[in-house]
Amino acid sequence: MPFIRTTTNKPVTKETADTCKTVCGQLIPLIRGKSEEWLMVQVTGDQNLYFQGNNAPCAMVEVQVFGKITNSDADNMTDALTRAFSKTLDIPADRIYVRYEEVSHWGWNGSNF
């Protein structure tokens, strides 16, 4: 039940959002036990987002997972997401943050896992 939310201050076309979705689907198995089958992705562009005191292109990528994530999996995912989104969104890698959240309660279809 992973959820990946990407927010950027750059405009994002439908085509670019679709590419981000595809990238997330390809990379989510880097987190053990996670697959695209349960992945939800949100890509939001053209936001008022500032980093290091300015609004040069930047992005915040939030990865929420049900259960635990190992440091190794997070390291691998951060590297892969940063490289892929830097290319896809045309944002320097040093202006992309990736944040992880482990979630212990996750509901779906009227009940919780």
Walk me through the topology.
Elements (H helix, E strand, L loop, with lengths): L2 E6 L5 H14 L12 E5 L14 E8 L4 H19 L6 E8 L3 E2 L2 E2 L1
Helix pairs in contact: 1-2
Please tell me about this protein's structure.
By secondary structure, the chain is of the alpha/beta class. It is built from two helices and six strands; from the N terminus they run βαββαβββ. It has helices at 14-27, 71-89; strands at residues 3-8, 40-44, 59-66, 96-103, 107-108, 111-112. Strands 2-1-3-4 form a four-stranded mixed β-sheet, covered by helices on one side. A two-stranded antiparallel ribbon has the order 5-6. The termini are close together. The model has no long low-confidence stretch (mean pLDDT 96).
List keywords for this structure.
113 residues, alpha/beta, Macrophage Migration Inhibitory Factor, 4-stranded mixed sheet, two-stranded antiparallel ribbon, 2 helices, 27% strand
Count of helical regions: 2
What spatial form do the alpha-carbon principal axes imply? globular
Radius of gyration: 14 Å
As for the CATH topology, it is: Macrophage Migration Inhibitory Factor
Total number of distinct structural domains: 1
Give the DSSP E fraction (strand runs of 2 or more residues). Answer: 25-35%
Question: What would you call the structural class?
Answer: alpha/beta
CATH fourth-tier homologous superfamily: Macrophage Migration Inhibitory Factor
Overall number of strands: 6
